[in-house]
Amino acid sequence: MRFDLITLFPEMFAAVRDQGVSGRAHARGIWSLETWNPRDFTTDVHRTVDDRPYGGGPGMVMLAEPLALAVEAARAARLQAGVDAPDAPAPVVLLSPAGRTHDQARAQRWAERTGAILICGRYEGIDQRFIDHYVDEEVSLGDFVLSGGELGAMVLVDSVVRLLPGVLHDAESAVQDSFNPALSGLLDSPHYTRPEVWRGDAVPEPLLSGHHARIAVWRRDQSLSLTAARRPDLIHRARTAGDLDARDERALNQINRSTAKPDAGQGSG
Length: 269
Ligand code: 9D3
Known about the structure:
The chain has helices at 14-18, 20-27, 64-81, 104-110, 128-134, 150-161, 170-174, 205-208, 212-230, 232-240, 246-259, and strands spanning 2-6, 32-36, 50-51, 61-62, 92-101, 115-120, 125-126, 137-140, 197-198, 201-202. The protein is α/β, with parallel strands linked by helices. α3 packs parallel to α5 and α9 packs across α11. The relative contact order is 0.12. Bound molecules: ligand 9D3. Ligand 9D3 binds at residues 95-97, 121, 124-125, 140-142, 144-146, 148-149, 152.
């Protein structure tokens, strides 16, 4: 898998390329990352990459031409490297608050492809004609404002690369295993390590019991109650996907009874 990043700040990508799980996988050749700076595709003495918006308004707009030349260079290099079949070029994806929000299901689909050319915007925006001519898809990270597309692109790349075969250790992979009863799209249960008592707080007793079945039930119940409290939407999704069994439903009923507020309906008083 290969990602080609069109960016005015190529140095930022050292974070995902060289550090942690994604950095280790990059060093092992499982994926690669190339950067293309639109400034290197300018022809004027000032190496101009932006200009004032037609119609007025605040901020600057990225010029279409340096972006277009950078995309063409990335496409040619990918073809030259044999990453994509000539009849199946990589998609050109713009990181943008106007895109569809990235999530785990989308990361899994990306992990089955050969990568992408990712466009990172800066300033107030990008000339729409570049987007119309080159961009296949826009991807957002969520409803908050970033200063540019680079951090979004790194989040996307990290979320995809960690799903590639051989990237995670066995121990890391276990938590991704769809057969692992501790997950099914729910929030994870709390984790504890030594010491057994820290500043007067003990580790929950079931985790010290050595009874694997009891530990699994405790973790599942913690997972269900945390998810019910913080992300009830994920309970609904797991139920719809058929990932909650009869014992889970009994545990959820128990959780609901112990956390339910008195109802505000027509009471006697
Ligand atoms: C605050 C400026 N906005 C107009 C009032 C427009 C705007 C321009 C450029 C907003 C954000 C950006 C830069 N953001 C991204 O490039 C970006 C992003 C984001 O801001 N939020 C969530 N996901 C993403 S992906 C790329």
